[in-house]
Amino acid sequence: MSDGRRATRADICAVACAEAFRGDGEILVSPMGFVPRLGARLARRTFEPDLMLSDGEATVIDEHGAVESWMPFADVFETLWSGKRHVMMGAAQIDRFGNQNISCVGDWARPKAQLIGTRGAPGNTINHPTSYWIGRHSPRVFLPSVDVVCGVGYDRAATLGDGARFHEVRRVITNLGVFDFESPGEGPATLRVRSLHPGVSASDVEAATGFAVRGFDGDVPATRAPTPGELALLDELDPDGRREREVAT
Amino acid sequence: MDKRCTADEAVSRLRSGMTVGVGGWGSRRKPMALVKALLRTDVTNLTVVSYAGPDVGLLLAAGRVRKVVYGFASLDSIPLEPHFRRARQAGAVEAVEWDEGMLQTGLRAAAQRVPFLPTRAGLGSDVVRFDPTLRTVTSPYADGEELLAVPALPLDAALIHAHRADARGNCRFLGVDPYFDLLFARAAETTIVSCERLVEGWDLPLHTPGIARPWVHAVVEARGGAGFTSCDPDYGRDEATQEAYAVAAKDPDAWARWYADWMEA
What we know:
The complex is a heterodimer.
Chain A: H1 9-20, E1 28-31, H2 34-45, E2 52-54, E3 59-61, E4 67-70, H3 73-82, E5 85-89, E6 93-94, E7 100-101, E8 104-105, E9 113-114, H4 121-127, E10 129-134, H5 154-158, E11 168-174, E12 177-182, E13 190-196, H6 202-208, H7 228-237
Parallel strand pairs in A: 1-2, 1-5, 5-10, 10-11
Antiparallel strand pairs in A: 2-3, 3-4, 6-7, 8-9, 11-12, 12-13
Helix pairs in contact in A: 1-2, 2-7
Chain B: H1 7-11, E1 19-22, H2 32-40, E2 46-52, H3 54-61, E3 65-73, H4 82-89, E4 94-97, H5 100-112, E5 116-119, H6 127-130, E6 135-138, E7 146-151, E8 155-165, E9 171-172, H7 181-187, E10 188-198, E11 210-211, E12 218-221, H8 239-248, H9 252-264
Helix pairs in contact in B: 3-4, 5-7, 8-9
């Protein structure tokens, strides 16, 4: 039970994922990974009751996991092209502009490691808001440049002009903090810290990131703690604590 | 017209060098009995278009594939396809990796007999860098927007596993997702369908998704014909066999044994 217990890092990450969906209203959310799924269900149970939750297959589920409606892949594609969707994907690599790689590591012609492939990342990122969940923030993931651009970042989007008017990389949530993208005034937006999870320092992020993160010049707020009600809901939605296994400590 | 035949008769239509589309998605409702029949022939040098799973893995492992057109390759419960991984990492196969929506768009263009269809998907990504054949198109209307012109993906043949079919080739999908099998069939010159059960007459809801007979050229009854991939609601994925497949793929001798057993099963 959550009576009086302290929030864990995974609780805070799940709430941060939920916060990424705040204001989304009646759209499809496709959270990939357990913590993003938990966050989406929490958002739906609390401040975003109109979200449609994809189960990643052909079903839209309600906040209790029961079937709400049918959405096969063809319909997911049509939905994402229409823009009524917010996806939260993972990333094998991500750079300061938010370019994301899930395709392969190394040389394209003969990769050192072939991963799953580009999947829907190009289409997602150019058509509707995208966020990323990275449970292990490390310099192997946060790189100066990615080997393959699957999810489109702000520098690539800037070259497309009006063609990128639906592009938005909204949040990057990691085990260390919450990030977004802001333009330094000129040039494309780059990664900026929004908040650090309790107990995380700027130097922790610096050591775990292969490029300079903006936003550390002033005081960086702490990621907000779950309310007692949210903690109780997290325990109800994830009684076995699966969320703990997806968050590096 | 009665289109019933054996799997071996059906795949005798295939020739080396063809472009072959495979229905299903990842490790879900793949036409494994037809893939097995294809592996009994000496057809090789294929271009395979697929939402890829063990279909592509088996054909790659047997050295039958020159080029793969795909958006991903996965066994679902096992995230990465081991043979596909190895082939890519050895530089042993030509790879055309598109956004998975682009794949649908290319099939739809072929199905509609237009040379391309426009989309935003792919713009700004390395899909266009690693496939230098891709071109953009400028809207002829006032907006003048530049879009990606996804070229039609015409198929010489499509291989599909359906839940039910009749002798004339009408087929039906009973699972929660029909995937893009209808588009594969419409994009193909020749479509070979295997089915869990051949039926006469229909007692299914009229709106059950399927493929109408003009797009189906051969019908093979193959019970369990998607195994070890899933064919819900008739049966789920045989996870133990898939696990054995993935483990065997790590070692050439183990693979030779697994493959020989599977081909005989």
